[in-house]
Design a protein that fits this description.
This protein is mostly helical. It is about 75% helix and about 0% strand. The protein has a single domain (about 5-165), classed as Orthogonal Bundle (Rna Polymerase Sigma Factor, Chain: A), CATH 1.10.1740. The chain has helices at about 5-10, 15-40, 40-60, 70-85, 100-105, 105-115, 120-130, 135-145, 150-165.
């Protein structure tokens, strides 16, 4: 039996320790995903918290049809989309903050962030999930609610965008 399935069952029964375990297991991954999407660490934290609020609010209706992580990523993707819908603009002229000290020292990491910022939002979503979060293509399709061929197409477009950026890099 899946460990997440047991955690969700314990949460359904009111086990606070199970809630803490689930959050500590997935919070860093969801925060990293939101940060890659939003590029502002403060807002990324807000979207991560919103993800878990929505998850626990819908938990009574949730049935383990797939992985808990996929469900959390889907909620996070929707929260990030809502953030952009509310803002009506994507700040392309600002450089991203770094989530950890190692990333701050890496020029390559900064280049990846800049390359991501230049991608259309739909390509960027898939690129973050595939290249940075290391999600499987079929899981990305479920998370974003799109077809597997569309995921593959967007991964190819992201690869092309990365290649174009790094070939033209000074």
């Amino acid at each position: 039996m899946d460990a997440d399935f047991l955690l969700v069952q314990k949460i359904h029964m009111g086990d606070e320790k199970a809630v803490e375990t689930l959050i500590s297991k997935y919070y860093p991954k969801i925060l990293n995903y939101c940060h890659m999407r939003i590029q502002d660490y403060g807002y990324a934290e807000d979207m991560t918290q919103e993800t878990f609020v929505r998850f626990f609010r819908t938990l009574p209706q949730y049935r383990l049809y797939g992985k808990v992580s996929n469900y959390l990523y889907a909620i996070a993707a929707n929260a990030c989309n809502d953030y952009y819908r509310k803002r009506r603009e994507i700040p392309l002229d600002t450089l991203p903050e770094k989530a950890d000290a190692q990333a701050e020292n890496s020029d390559r990491c900064l280049d990846v962030h800049i390359a991501l910022e230049r991608m259309p939002e739909d390509i960027k979503q898939v690129a973050v999930l595939f290249f940075l979060q290391e999600q499987k293509q079929k899981d990305i399709a479920r998370i974003l609610g799109i077809s597997l061929p569309l995921v593959k197409y967007r991964i190819r477009k992201a690869r092309e965008a990365f290649l174009a950026y790094f070939q033209n890099e000074p």
